[in-house]
UniProtKB/TrEMBL annotation:
Organism, scientific name: Pedococcus ginsenosidimutans
Domain Histidine kinase: 41-255
UniProt-recorded name of the protein: histidine kinase
Included stretch of the parent chain: 349 to 603 of 603
Source organism, top-level taxon: Bacteria
Main location: membrane
Compartments in which it is found: Cell membrane
UniProt keyword list: Kinase, Phosphoprotein, Transferase, Two-component regulatory system
């Protein structure tokens, strides 16, 4: 009976090990597939602006005495697009690297938000969008990397301004909730459909909403936000209604 008991025990352990190995292989395959998809998307995204720049260079070469202003404009726009793309890709790679240690220090979130708002005010003014900051007198601080948290706040405010139409308002609220800092970035913009909300944090995802596609972007901003939040053991949630506006709520550990 002891022998049979031992055999049964051994086959249960073997079955568990087998199941674990099967799950790990499936997970590795999934990660590998995701990486291949990402590589081909990146190549595709880089190829289009490059092809446009090369096309216009050819045009200029073929007709050196013609007016270059149109070609220069298109080349400038595409160069900016490439620059933005490469910058986002580098940031995404940095914040996705599990071996890259996270800087941990006390970060004054009010100062950080005010800096970001100052940076976006000229663009917001151009589009007739206002940006307000609401924060308690006792400034909440977060615990983490000032550089990464600044990027997170920049990306959220940048989107709020980008996707808000003429005359709309953007509000950034900060408060302490228990042992967390809550940052809410709300806008009165074009909103995000329920279907799009499910894919929002996927690399290169851009809404199919024609109003959103009019605005240039890389589709990497929110995936960067999500990874920074994860590295800081925080959470991010979206609440949005098409045509009404969007709110992103981020919770981070306090410093
Ligand atoms: P990008 O803005 O460069 O396209 P993001 O990853 O920052 O990339 O955002 C992904 C998509 O989510 C955007 O293309 C847009 O459709 C939608 N989105 C993000 N933020 C907002 C917002 N505040 N209001 C409406 N749509 C938004």
């Amino acid at each position: 009976a002891l022998e049979i008991g031992r055999d049964v025990g051994r086959s249960i352990v073997n079955a568990r090990l087998f199941e674990l190995e099967r799950r790990m292989t499936a997970e590795l395959r999934r990660a590998d597939r995701a990486k291949t998809v990402l590589f081909s998307t990146v190549s595709h995204e880089l190829k289009n602006p490059l092809a446009s720049i090369m096309g216009h260079l050819e045009l200029l070469k073929e007709d050196p005495s013609g007016d270059p202003s149109w070609s220069l404009k298109v080349m400038e726009r595409n160069t900016h697009r490439l620059q933005g793309l490469v910058d986002d890709l580098l940031t995404l790679a940095k914040v996705s690297d599990p071996d890259r240690p996270l800087v941990r220090e006390r970060v004054d979130m009010v100062a950080l938000v005010r800096n970001a708002v100052d940076m976006f005010l000229p663009r917001a003014a151009q589009e007739n969008v206002t940006i307000a900051v609401q924060a308690p007198p006792q400034a909440p601080s977060a615990w983490g990397s000032p550089e990464e948290l600044a990027r997170l706040v920049d990306n959220l405010i940048s989107n709020a301004v980008k996707y808000t139409t003429d005359g709309g308002a953007v509000t950034v609220r900060l408060r302490t909730v228990g042992d967390r800092v809550e940052l809410v970035c709300s806008d009165q913009g074009i909103g995000i459909s329920k279907a799009d909300q499910r894919s929002l944090f996927t690399e290169f995802f851009r809404s199919t909403n024609p109003d959103a596609l009019e605005v240039p972007g890389t589709g990497l901003g929110l995936s960067i936000v999500q990874r920074i939040v994860a590295r800081h053991h925080g959470t991010v949630a979206v609440d949005s209604e098409l045509g009404k506006g969007t709110s992103f709520t981020v919770l981070l550990p306090t410093g």
